[in-house]
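name: query_chain
kind: protein
chains: 1
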Amino acid sequence: MGPPYEYLKRENMAFDKTEAEKLLADCARRCCICGRLHRVQIHHIVPGNDNIENGIPLCPNCHDEAHTSYSSGRTTRTYTAAELKLHRQRTVDQVKREAKWKPGGTDWKKDKKLIIFFAQCLDRPAFRNYFHQELSFADFDQAMEDTLVALNTGYWRTRDGTLIERAKGKVCIINASWREKIEKITVIIEDIRRRFHKTFGLNEMLFHIRGPHRFYNRDLDEFMNGFRHDRDLGNWMDTKRQETINLMNSLLAELGLQPLQGLREH
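structure:
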């Protein structure tokens, strides 16, 4: 067996079994970075140290990212040991707060404030208009991107394109079932953007539109007009966006708030 297998074996099995089980329970078997449940592995924060204080539960995706080192051309920051320990502590604290969470309590009020902010992020034409009625596909794509940023980070893009922090990201929601619904909304919007880009071959075009050699939005829209009446694509886009509205409305109903308006004809 080659080195990769031995490294993986050490990565997942070197911690004391009893201590590893306690750490997983303390973190409720969730990834300490993205919050996803169950499919977690215990990552060595510092390689070679098998003390459980050096462990952090991560999902496979975040685990891979934590192992990524600096390389030529990399533009994103790698995880430091200090940051990973802060993520672990935040998760442990969050699990403890979940156990004390109750309607009307302090954390309930904080969660309610976050849900209202996330609902506002979806309360926009890009989630109300049928796909074949979109006036600007460039604006549609930008709306999906802005909504994802807001759900993940709490940052909102102003009209001039500036990102400002308006709230916290979805990982800060204490109620597990509410957090799971917001996560589902995020995954659906990611799927929408993925299919949108794949269908129209937009990755390169959007680079030019938003990059140094900027085109006008009409360049994208003129290119895409031929797809405006693709019935299968339109139905899929409409169904997926309505799913996000339905999920959000189920949260608003639990809070006794008015639902969002979904897709509608003009």
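note: The chain has two domains: 3-100, 106-254.
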